[in-house]
Structures are given as C-alpha cells and as structure tokens.
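Hi V.,

Quick status before I head out on leave. The structure for the redesign project is tokenized and pasted below; the design run finished overnight.
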C-alpha cells in the first residue's frame, strides 16, 4: 500500500443499522465531525451529515455512489461513479448511483481558477475535472476496506488484495465481501492522500474502458426517470411568463383586472422584462396569458435587423484599429509584408437556438416564514450551486436545498439560472405553496439566449517557398468568448498567428451553445486550409500532415480517419469528401461524404467518419454515442437552423419555422475510431459538432469548386452560390 503522503483532515466512518456512510474527503474539503462514542450518536451524526457522504455501503454489499455532475444524456451518471468504483474495486453489479447534494465545497470538481471548486456541467469538462477526484476518493474507500479487514483478521494490510467488492488474504485463503465488513469497519484518524501516480495504471483498469451500460437508461426507457417537469407536489400551483419578442423591452400590463378575473388565476407578478401569472393549473395560466394586453417599451434591440447587419460588420472589419487581441504568436506583420501570396475570405453565421427537448422548468417551495426553500430542477449547475435562489429570497445559501434532476437537453442553455430565478420570484409570492414555472416552446424560441452571429475575416500568408507562414483571424460580433473562443491553432505549426475580437452589440440575449465559438471559428479555419490546398494543388491531407508535424496526437487522428474513410479510394462522380480537424478538449478529425441536388440546393451527407483521441476512454460506447449525437446536432445547425430578427423581434416561434434535421437526412453511417491513450480524459461532447461545417463546406468545394461561407447552408444559399 502507498505510504501516507500527508495527514488529511479526520475521516469518520459512521455506522448505522442500514450500513455505513464513508465520509471520504475529496478536493481537500472534508466535513468536520466530532468523535462518535456509541451507535445512537453515530446515527444522529449520520442524519446530520448524510449530505456529505461520497459513498454508502450496506451489509448486503449494495454500494451507493454519489454523482456530482448534471446528467443530460451525456452519461455522467455512469462515467464518474465508474471512476470511483474502479479504484474502490467495487462489484459494479452492486452499485447504485444518486445525485450528490449541490454543495461545491464538498462535491466540487476542478474549476478554471487555481484551487477553485465548481459544480458546473459545461465545456466538456466534467470527466476531466473529476478524474482525479473520483479516483482518489475510490482508492481511499478501498483503503478503508483493506484496513478494516487487516484489523479484523490480524494480518498486515500489505498482504491483502481486492477485486469485485471482496478482500482476499492469499496466505490464509480468507476472503470477505465488502458488505460483510460493515460491522467490522474501524474509524481511522487519517487516510493515504493518494497521488495520481499511486492510483491504478490504465492498463490495470477492470471497469474503465469497457462497454458498461449506462445506469440511468432503464429508468428513462420505462418512464420511471424523474425529470424536473415530472415533479408534482401537494397544493402546487403553476406559473407562466409573457416576455415578449423584443429582448430587453419593459412591459406595462393594461388589463390586470381582466386577467385576475379569469378562472383559476391567483396572481399577476410584474418583472422588469415580463408579466408573470400564477394559476391553479397550467391550462388556466396559459389561457390567461393569451389574454394579456401589454404595452412594450423600446429596447437596445429596437430597429435591429439581423440579416442586414453584416454590412456594418464589414465596415468594422475594415477599420485600422485593432480589437481585443486573443492570439499573438510570432510576427504577423512581417509574415504579411514578406508574403508571396495572400488569401482572404469572410465567413458569416446566423443566430442559432439551443432547441433542448425538455421545456425549461423548475419547482420551488418557499417556507411560510420565507426563511428556507427547496428547489427541484434540471440544471447544468453553475458558479452558484444554489442557482440564484438565496439572493432572490434574501436568505443564506445553507437555507436552500437543490434537488437535481435529469435534464432533457442542455447544450449550454441550462447553465443559465434565469428560469430558476423567475420561479423563485413566483414562489416567494405564493409561499408556502410550491410553484412550478414552465416555459413554453414559444417562450424559449422568442426569448432564448442564442449563439451569437459573427463575421470572421481570415488572412493567410504564404512565404517565398509556398509554405503557410502567417494566419490572421478577426472576429466581429457580440459575446466575448462566445464568439472568440476556438481561434487558437495550437496543433498547427504556423509560425506567425494573430487573432482579435471586435465588439458590436445589439441587445440580444446570448449564451454558450454546444462548442461555443468553436463552431463558427473552426469552420472558418478549416475552410481556409482547404482553400489554400486547392490553390496550391495539394491534397488537404498533405497540407494538414505538414502543419501537424509537431503534434503527434493530432496527426494520429488525421492518419486514422484517412484510413477509416478510405480517403483516396474511388467514389461516385456526384459525391465528394471533405475533412476538418477540431480540438475542443479532445482531438478529432472528421471526414464526410456528400452530394448536392443542384436543382433544389439540398446537401445530402451520406457518411461521416471520425478519429478521436480523448485520452483514457471511460465508456467507449458512450463516447461513440456522443460523437454521433454531436455530428447530427452539427448537421442540423449547419444545414437548417437560424434565428432571424427584424426590428428587434425574433421571427421564429416553434419548430414549424425553426426546422431541425429530420430522420431522412441522417447519414447512412457515422463511424468513430477511438485512439488508445493513457492521457487524462478530455471532453467529447463538443468535439464532433464544430467539425461538421468545415467538413461539409470542404466537400462542397471539392465537388463544385464553389465556397460556402455563410452558416447555415440552406438550399437557397446553396443555389445562390452554385449560380453565382
């Protein structure tokens, strides 16, 4: 066994008749518990501190592991507990998984700032940020089993081994199941503070890397899974809001008496940007909402027309002043002055909406004295694990209990707290009756928070030898990181690189959308590379091989997808293949095969191939599912989806005028090759989506010689390019 590197705060293992909760400290934050002298005291402590347990073990051997991340279909309900179980050497058939409490000090993973702890399921960072945390906690749980067995048998702990929830002593041929050890568990003053090197080597993994079925799938199939929208509480009432179509406009309600006279309506509540209605049933609330007469003020969005704004963006891009510098490597000015040839292209993208399946909703019950509250919600969590509710109610965070539920889709939208805070306002007014707030699809489309529009101006400079010497990338748009992320080219050996962001705002609500700025920016970067390759008479693969010479892991994904897609093989005359490389957590290169109906302008994607290096693959089948989902969502956004705004008002309202990809348009095949690696896992949820636009546009360029430069590639735009 590894030696104790340092003394970590006191751990106690609290016994009760139902089993034992192991208060394993992770992330350096531990519950401070007093010593328990008898079983009754232990039980009282367990009741008081059960929210800080990472794992619970009963005498039947059943193990409950607590998942600190949101589960929105990406598999965290399995992948994180699996890491714990791997190091604990748990029998997976005996494992149950539950959501942990929303307390970042105890359950937080690695944040962006040093020593910070977050419960924030965003940015494809969950597995990466909890990789060491969950494994270390599992290893400490295993140590408890080993130490207790050693004391029980009177043998050295170094002589013991474990596998599948069983401790073995080879010399005496004794063995004991973890559950049977519960009565013999001993309190310990300290645990080994396992370093990363002291944990299992990936080659010794028994669970990680195997195709273990996801824990939450059966309940989702049989209907037992609880989403927040399924919650029904006694005496519950329903709330809806009318937010209008113009973001930032202020409402004046003109017929409050009429609304209050409607059947079942209990109250109207004004917001700065909306009018809320609470009624006994959802149907009554929605019926009253349709009768609202509201005078809306002007706002910062007034007069804004999204399809006409690119002319203004072009003028901003032409200005001599430099915006906020995002990337500066080498001397781009020197590369420009010495260039033997310069390539310049503009790229555009429209607003797009998250289109998550489950409507936004939350249930909140505020105590009659307004001093505490309970929240039932599907959330991607956030910097504030209590989701803004304490501030709304004017109480301390400890007085708010958040019950996290499955999410019917997030994609960044549920990392916002707006819908939870809205519900808290209603619940405060209706206390102690619980309130369920539901956004309709129309609410969410018109008052959504969109991926921002942008214009990108790229300049590429070749030196006297025809080598790519400089790469300049300008982004014009609103949202900071929402438009400027993804402009780095860390895996391409381009000596001189420069990227900047130039800001312009329109008063439109914006938010992270799956892969954030990588979607538009990687589209632009990868298209520019193919443009250079075509001009120079090079195979796009050859150009990328040269650029990836110093990045072996990225190059390996390129070589693998070339093999997987039979890049140089024969293909039908009316089809072509295109590729794109993306780094978003993990590294991936994708190739698609397309055809184009020149009469209708419709692009058909027949096949998609991906080679992925995501470090250690915790759940291979789930990673492949993530890539497939990412490709399909990427295709939907690239070929169909856009939000347009006229005079500040969103023109779309539901899926009849915001079309998503149909089953008939799904590729015949999506094939993913996972590259074996022992590196720390990286995210996979946002790697596939941003490679779609570049791969399709590059295949289109190869097939037609024409450039698609404005997302989405609607049939009308395709025909315009073909006939231009």
């Amino acid at each position: 066994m590894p030696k104790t590197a340092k003394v970590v705060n006191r751990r106690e293992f609290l016994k009760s008749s139902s089993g034992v909760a192991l208060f394993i400290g992770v992330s350096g934050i531990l519950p401070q518990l007093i010593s328990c002298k008898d079983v009754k005291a232990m039980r009282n402590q367990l009741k008081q501190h059960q929210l800080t347990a990472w794992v619970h073990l009963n005498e039947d051997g059943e193990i409950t592991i607590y998942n600190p991340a949101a589960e929105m279909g990406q598999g965290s309900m399995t992948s994180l507990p699996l890491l714990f179980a791997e190091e604990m050497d748990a029998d997976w058939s005996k494992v149950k998984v539950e959501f942990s409490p929303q307390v970042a000090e105890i359950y937080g993973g690695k944040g962006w700032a040093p020593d910070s702890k977050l419960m924030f399921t965003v940015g494809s960072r969950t597995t990466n940020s909890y990789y060491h945390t969950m494994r270390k906690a599992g290893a400490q749980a295993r140590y408890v089993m080993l130490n207790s067995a050693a004391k029980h048998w009177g043998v050295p702990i170094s002589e013991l081994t474990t596998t599948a929830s069983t401790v073995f002593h080879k010399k005496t041929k004794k063995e004991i199941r973890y559950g049977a050890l519960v009565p013999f568990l001993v309190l310990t003053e300290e645990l080994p503070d396992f370093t990363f090197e002291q944990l299992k080597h990936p080659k010794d993994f028994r669970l990680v890397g195997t195709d273990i079925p996801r824990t939450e799938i059966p309940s989702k199939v049989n209907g037992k899974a609880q989403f927040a929208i399924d919650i029904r509480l006694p005496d519950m009432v329903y709330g809806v809001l009318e937010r209008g179509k113009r973001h930032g406009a202020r409402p004046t309600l003109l017929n409050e008496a009429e609304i209050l006279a409607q059947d079942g309506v209990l109250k109207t509540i004004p917001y700065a940007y909306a009018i809320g209605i609470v009624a006994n049933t959802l149907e009554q609330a929605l019926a009253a909402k349709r009768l609202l007469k509201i005078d809306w003020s002007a706002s910062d969005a007034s007069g804004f027309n999204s399809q006409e704004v690119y002319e203004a963006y072009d003028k901003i891009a032409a200005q001599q002043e430099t915006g906020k510098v995002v990337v500066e490597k080498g001397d781009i000015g020197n590369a420009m002055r010495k260039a033997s040839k310069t390539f310049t292209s503009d790229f555009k993208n429209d607003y797009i909406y998250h289109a998550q399946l489950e409507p936004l909703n939350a249930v909140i019950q505020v105590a009659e004295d307004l001093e505490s509250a309970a929240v039932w919600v599907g959330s991607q969590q956030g910097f504030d694990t209590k989701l803004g509710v304490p501030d709304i109610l004017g109480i301390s965070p400890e007085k708010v209990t958040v019950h996290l539920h499955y999410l019917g889709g997030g994609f960044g939208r549920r990392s916002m707290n707006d819908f939870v805070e809205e519900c808290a306002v209603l619940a405060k007014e209706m206390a102690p009756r619980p309130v369920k707030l539901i956004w309709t699809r129309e609410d969410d489309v018109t008052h959504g928070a969109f991926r921002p529009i942008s214009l990108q101006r790229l300049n590429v400079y070749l030196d006297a030898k025809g080598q790519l010497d400089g790469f300049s990338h300008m982004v014009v748009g609103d949202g900071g990181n929402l438009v400027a992320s993804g402009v780095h080219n860390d895996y391409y050996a381009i000596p001189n690189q420069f990227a900047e962001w130039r800001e312009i705002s329109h008063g439109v609500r914006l938010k992270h959308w799956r892969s954030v700025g990588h979607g538009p920016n990687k589209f632009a970067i990868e298209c520019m590379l193919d443009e250079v390759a075509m001009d120079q008479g090079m195979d796009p693969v050859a150009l990328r091989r040269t650029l990836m010479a110093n990045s072996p892991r990225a190059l390996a994904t390129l070589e693998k997808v070339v093999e997987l897609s039979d890049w140089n093989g024969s293909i039908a005359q009316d089809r072509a293949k295109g590729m794109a490389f993306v780094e978003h957590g993990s590294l991936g290169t994708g190739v698609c095969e397309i055809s184009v109906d020149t009469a209708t302008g419709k692009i058909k994607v027949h096949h998609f191939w991906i080679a992925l290096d995501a470090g250690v693959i915790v759940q291979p089948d789930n990673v492949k599912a993530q890539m497939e989902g990412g490709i399909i969502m990427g295709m939907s956004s690239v070929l169909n989806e856009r939000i347009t705004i006229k005079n500040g008002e969103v023109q779309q309202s539901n899926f009849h005028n915001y079309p998503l990809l149909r089953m008939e348009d799904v590729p015949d095949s999506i094939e993913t090759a996972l590259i074996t690696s022992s590196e720390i896992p990286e995210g996979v949820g946002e790697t596939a989506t941003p490679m779609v636009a570049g791969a399709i546009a590059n295949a289109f360029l190869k097939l037609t010689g024409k450039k698609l430069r404005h997302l989405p590639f609607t049939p009308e735009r395709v025909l315009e390019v073909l006939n231009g």
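Above is the designed sequence. The chain has three domains: 10-213, 231-299+354-446, 309-343+450-723.

G. will cover questions while I'm gone.

Best,
W.
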